[in-house]
Every structure is written in structure tokens, then in C-alpha cells.
Amino acid sequence: MKVDIIICGVGGQGVLLASEVLGNLAILARLDVKKSEIHGMAQRGGSVFSHLRIGEKVNSPVIPLGSADFMLAFEELEALRYAPYLKKDGVVLVNRQRISPLTVLSGDAKYPENPVAMMKEHFERVFEVNALELAKKAGSPKAVNMVMIGALSKFLDWDESLWLSAMERCIPQRFLSLNQRAFSLGRAG
Amino acid sequence: MKVFLSGNEAVARGAWEAGLIFASSYPGTPATEILQNLASYREIKAEWAPNEKVALEAAIGASFAGVRSMASMKHVGLNVAADPFMTLSYTGVNGGLVIAVADDPGLYSSQNEQDTRRYVKASRILALEPSDSQEALEFTKLAFELSERFDTPVLIRLVTRISHSKCVVEVGDRKEVPRKVPQIDPAKWVMLPAFAKERHKVVLEREKRLKEFAEGSDLNRCELLSEDIGFIASGICYQYVKEAFPEASVLKLSVINPLPLELVRDFCSKVKRVYVVEELDPIFEEQIKAAGIHVVGKEVFPEYGEFSPDLVRSVVDKGYKPSYISFSDIPARPPTLCPGCPHRGVFVALRKAKVKVFGDIGCYTLGALRPLSSIHSCVCMGAGVSMEHGAASVGMGNSVAIIGDSTFMHSGVPSLMDIVYNNSSSTVIVMDNGTTAMTGKQPHPGTGVNAKGEPAPKIPMERIAEALGVKRVRIVDPYSVDEVYRAVKEEVQVDEPSVIITRRPCTLITTRPDEIWEVDKDKCIACGACLKVGCMALSMNGKAKIDEVLCFGCGVCAQVCPVEAIVKRNGGSNEG
Ligand SMILES: Cc1ncc(C[n+]2csc(CCOP(=O)(O)OP(=O)(O)O)c2C)c(N)n1
Question: Is B373 on the interface with A (CB under 8 A)?
Fold first, then answer.
């Protein structure tokens, strides 16, 4: 088996924690896994992404172009930015949230009219998630990331219990139940 | 036990398992997390030094004293540490000494793209390059042993993609290593010309033994598959090659200095067409070709930027075109100063004062970008202050230097000394946000905290400036654009050295105040002046709008509004 997942969003949305959970999930499932991302400059409100590759044996931590099986986009514009990694019949889960970059706020650039529609034009399996709403329902707008992996979990074969244990491995105890609630809402949604 | 570790975490783990006692470093992406992780181990004395030279010298001292020691840094950090580094090759070690250096192909967060392997070759020491986190752990662990066996420092070469990628790693236990007696041996440790002359010969002899080791070591691995096409690669490039050409033969190099050229010769005699795949400089290729072995390298591969499986494949297989969808005209999302960042007010004041600004490296370098656009140079850490001196000395006039607090401690102090000693009427602004923000809020000698998070003596920069003989030292609040503006205007005029310290904690190390700002819609004339402070909390939709979750209450936007339409409001909610 092979699962390549690209996760993208904006600094502060919890992209890296989401991919951390997926990495631990793979270890619990006794598979090989590599995850790659860029720290540093990228974090000051910049565009953030993480490549996650799960399989029997993974070489490059970077996903080749046009070959990701899944995209988790935490923000609409970012879905467009990382589309080149996605394969034609890949599954896109996009959070219906827009965050204008400074280039747009200051009038130097224009936010595309409808990124989700643009994605749908080129990819057949685009699913929208109201992650912010569900995260608030779970108890915090910060739990968008867990709603998103909850939504992803429906497409993968692993038991829900495995996902919850993976979360246990990377989330501090006091935030765990909130995050697991968000995950369940994403999975049910 | 199997865990999920980044390359940097694995280096730290390997060093801990090897019985490391002392480690020193200065932050720098992508190497920062090595020391951060070392600091979490009780057995290790892990420190942030003021700069990389000091860090390496401290590690040399610990090695001299008889324990295993380590220094870690980013590639340009090795420039700063190059002086001790080059002579350390002559002295050799007592306790095992490992230097972990992370290069940044593709310049994700650096000012240049230099290749550390040049230094390694010049110094003739042993260097290993891991291709994943498991190897990062194992090679680091082994490096201490090799360091002691061959009496050489060992360099672990990393790149961003290894440092910041996570893999499944089997970890082990720590093994304590007995302390050696301090090495009192002037002919080995006192590098006077007479002694150093002899040590240079020792270095050349050692290199021969290291070559034998490289030729015979099973760290280098020959994977013979195809007879038609083969690759020579190390580190991350090995993974790219395996991904792009699973059927090809590969000579995987792990000992990257000295090179096992006989092994290379043997490999190339068995495979018809051999490519050398290396990011950045043609270091392997030059040596291989100089040995009269035919390979293909930079004739086809770029000498800049980061590689990828796609790049390797499309360079070698001209017919290969990955098929994918890409959208054009996607607005960029560059990193920006956070809402409430104390640097913002300084840039707004500098823009208004219309001065030339010699900048430096840190979060504040972002002040060079639109719409703040108020930095006119950035070369390396500390350079802003020295450049201001040079320019002031030749009468350019109307300029200032800006430097962050951590950068001031790193290398700004000798530059300020230069200003005083050689008497230029330079103005230096130290932007003191109480942390090393750019690399993730590490403490430094001015913060009162050490690498382990314990209280430490605090070294105030105003006292340093005064002790150096600067008579005009003043501290201003960067949230007040006017205060900074007036200070700049005054100090640029005076005929002697001056230091302005703009002091406010970074928003990442402080809590949001209760008071935030909002736009009075009736007063707003939608002129867009507030947008020119470059804050994510501000937007314009008919009228200006302030995002109540993002606003940090600094009030800089209110100070540039020509009609006083931005007003205080209470009770900003803290969620979000
Ligand atoms: C020689 C060298 N070492 C380390 C770095 C990485 N680095 C860039 S800026 C910086 C320090 C920034 O701290 P500070 O000066 O306090 O500015 P701030 O980011 O807090 O605004 C560091 C460690 C570098 N670029 N060059």
C-alpha cells in the first residue's frame, strides 16, 4: 500500500500537528512513514505545508508532482497553491475558510473569486468541510486541524481507535478530549 | 523502541546515546532543534553561546578536558566558527568532538546557499552525511567513536530536508563513557608555528588513514542492479535517486570526506553511465573527475537550489514530464511581522524619517519587504552596524544601523566598538524584543534565561554600550512611532556615536493586552494609510477594518491614521 498526503494551510492553523498525528498513526499501523515540512521563515503567517508519505518502505520524504492521493487544505487559497502535488483522481478535503494574505490586504494582489470551484473544475473528488464551525462546536476554533483529519479518516481503512491513540501520542492530556471531540465531528460530518 | 523523529531530533538522540556531556550552539534554521533537544536531556550540559565561534571553542575546551562534546550550527554559522574549525583539524581532540552543520539548499531561511562540504575538504577532517533520521542517529553516535579513534573532529552534514523531515527511528539507550584525563601536550594543543608545522603533517597522515577507512567502511554502500545506469549520491539525494530510479545501480556515500575514490572507480567500471547527483557544489564530481573517472554531473544538474525526485528524473530522462495541474496568479503568502510586533513601529518611524538603513538578520529583516520597505542592506549577522560605520566614515550621512538583540550579542558588540574606537558619528538602533524570535524564541545572554530554561545572569545591552564608551544611549518604546521618529532624527544629527534601544517584548513571549483598537466607520475616509503598516489584522472593505482576534493592541495603525479614525476599545476576546 501507499498513501501520499499533502496538508496545507496558513501559519497558526495547526498543519504540523495534523501531520504529526498521521505520522504516529502510521507507526501504530506498523508501516513506514516520512513527513517533510519547512520551518523558519514560513511560519510568520506564511504558507505552511507538510508532505506525509505512508507505505511499506518510503524513500523520498517529498511527494513527487502529480502523485498525492489526498490533499487536506485548511484554507481555500492554499489548496490552489499545492494542487501540483495532487494526482488527477486524488481526494481533496478543503476547509471552507479564507484567510487573506498581506499581499491581498494591502491591495497588491487579488484573492481568487472561488478557489473551491477552480479545484472542482480540475479534480473530480473535491469535498468541502466546514471545519471552523465544527471546531467551534467541539470547543475551540483551534481544533480545525483535528476536524480535518477526522474527515480524512473516513477515506482510510484504519479503525477509529487507532486514530484516537495516535492523537494521544502527540497531544497533551489536557487538550486531548477537546481534540478527539473535534476529530469525531469531522469523521461524522 | 520505534519513534517518529526529525533529523535534528535524531542527531540529538544519537549524541545522547553516545554519552555526550557538553554541547553548545547558536540558533540558526535548520539546525536550531539539535541543541533544543540536547537541552532536554538531564545528563547533558547544553548551552546557547553568544555565537557559533564561541560555541565551537567551548566544545573544544570540553573535549580537551576529556569528555565527549558537540557544537551545532547552520551553514553560515560555520563561517563564524571557521577560525577555530580550521585549526581544530590540527590539534585533533581528546574527548570525541562532533560538529553538526545544516546546509540550506533552496534557501528556505538563509542569506546564502554555500556548501559546507567545501570547508570539510579544506580542513581534511572526517565527515558523514545521513540520508534519513535513522542514519542521523547512528552516524552521530558512531561519529564520537571515530573522532576518538582517528583523533579528528567529525562533521555531520545535514540539509534542511533531512533536519526537518521525520522518519521512523529505532532508538537505543545511553552508554556513559569514562572521562579522559585532560590532555597536557603542548606540541598537540599549542598551535605556535613550530608546533603547527608538525601538526600539519599529522593532518596529512591522518587523511591517509581516513581514506583507508572510507574505502573499507560499510557505511558506503554499493547497490548493484542495472549495468546501464547508475548514480553516486549521498544524503537526501540518495533518497531522491531511489525514488526516481528504483531499478538503477547506486553507490550510496555516507562518508563524504575523504571520498572513497577506489570504491567509486570500481562502481563506475561496472556500470555504463554514471551520474553524480549532489545538490549545490560539484564537490564529489570534481574529485571523481580529477581521479580520471568518467561521470556525468553538473553538465546536466543545476548547481543551485534544492533537488527533488522529479528534478532528478526529468534531468536524466529527457522524455519524462510529470503530469500535474497548476494554477497561475495565486497571490503570494510571504511571512510577515506578527500583529503587535514591536519592530513595526520602528520601521514606520524610519520610513517617515527618510533615512538609509543598514539592516541585519532576524524577524526585522522582513521590514525590507512591502509595504514597510525600510531596510536597504542585509549581508550577514552584525554587518549592519559595521556597514553603518564604514558609510558614516566616508561621509554618506543620514543613515542608521538596525540590529536585533540576539544579533547584537552575537556580533554587534565588536562592530559597536569599532564605531567608538574609530570615532564615526554612527547611530545604531538595537531592536530589543527580549528573544531570538526568528529562529523560535531562544534565550540569549541579554534575556536572563539559559538554554535549559533556568534563570541566568542577564547582560544588559545598554550597559555594554555605555562600557564601550557610547555617551548617547537612550531607550524608547517602539509602540510610539513619534518617540522613535524623534530619537532617530536627533541622533542622526549629532556628531558622535549613539545607540537607541527600542524595547518591547516579542508578541510570542508576552500576553495580549486587554485594550485593542477598532475603526470608527464614520470617521474613516478609506485612504489606506493604515494598510501601509503591513499588519495582518487590518483590511479594507469600503472602510478600514480591524480583526478583533488578530489585533494585539500596539496602536501603530492609529498613529498613522490622518483623521484619528482608529480608536481604542476594551475587552478584546482572547480566544482564537
Ligand atoms: C551566522 C548566523 N547564525 C545564525 C543565523 C540565524 N539567525 C538569523 S537571525 C537570527 C537572530 C535573530 O534574533 P534577533 O536579532 O533577536 O532578532 P529577532 O528575530 O528577535 O527580531 C538568527 C539566529 C544566521 N543567519 N547567521
Answer: no
Going B527 to B528 to B530 to B536, the CA torsion angle's sign is positive
Q: Give domain B517-568's CATH number out of 3.30.56.10, 3.30.70.20, 3.10.290.10, 3.30.70.1450.
A: 3.30.70.20
Q: How far apart are CA B511 and CA B377, in angstroms?
A: 32
Evaluate the omega torsion of the peptide bond into residue A64 and state whether it is cis, within 30 degrees of 0: no
Can you name the CATH fold of B342-503? Answer: Rossmann fold (3.40.50)
Residue pointed to by grid coordinates 490586504: A105
Q: Structure pTM?
A: 0.96
Residues in chain A: 189
> For residues B66 and B183, what is the distance between their CA atoms, to the nearest angstrom?
7
CA–CA gap between residue B39 and residue B274 (Å, rounded): 43
Rounded mean pLDDT of B279-284?
A: 98
- Beta strand A2-10 with A47-55 is antiparallel
Q: Which three cell numbers stand for residue A21?
A: 498525528
Q: Give A65's contacts in chain B (Cβ within 8 Å).
A: 310, 322, 324
Q: What share of chain A is helix, strand, coil (3-state, %, to 5)?
A: 45, 25, 30
CATH for B2-216, among 3.40.309.10, 3.40.50.970, 2.40.30.10, 1.10.760.10? 3.40.50.970
Which one of B1, B166, B313, B372 would you mutate to disrupt binding with A, by most A Cβ within 10 Å of its Cβ? B166
Name the grid cell of B32. Answer: 536550531
As a whole number of angstroms, the distance between CA B260 and CA B222 comes to: 12
The Cα–Cα gap between B28 and B442 comes to 10
Rounded Cα distance between B492 and B488, Å, is 6
| β-bridge partners, A128 | A94
- Residues of chain B positioned with their CB less than 8 A from the CB of A35: 4, 165-167
Residues 6+ apart with CB under 8 A from B424: B388, B389, B392, B393, B497
Residues, chain B? 576
Q: Is the dihedral of CA B382, B387, B393, B399 positive or negative?
A: negative
Cβ(A11)–Cβ(A46) below 8 Å: yes
Does ipTM surpass 0.85 in this model?
yes
* Residues of chain B above pLDDT 70, percent: 99
* pLDDT, average across residues B151-177: 98
Question: Contact at 8 Å (CB) between A163 and A18?
Answer: no
Would the pLDDT of B125 be above 50? yes
Fold of A2-99+113-188: Pyruvate-ferredoxin Oxidoreductase; domain 3 (3.40.920)
Pocket test for ligand 1, best of B407, B409, B461 (most atoms within 8 A of CB): B407
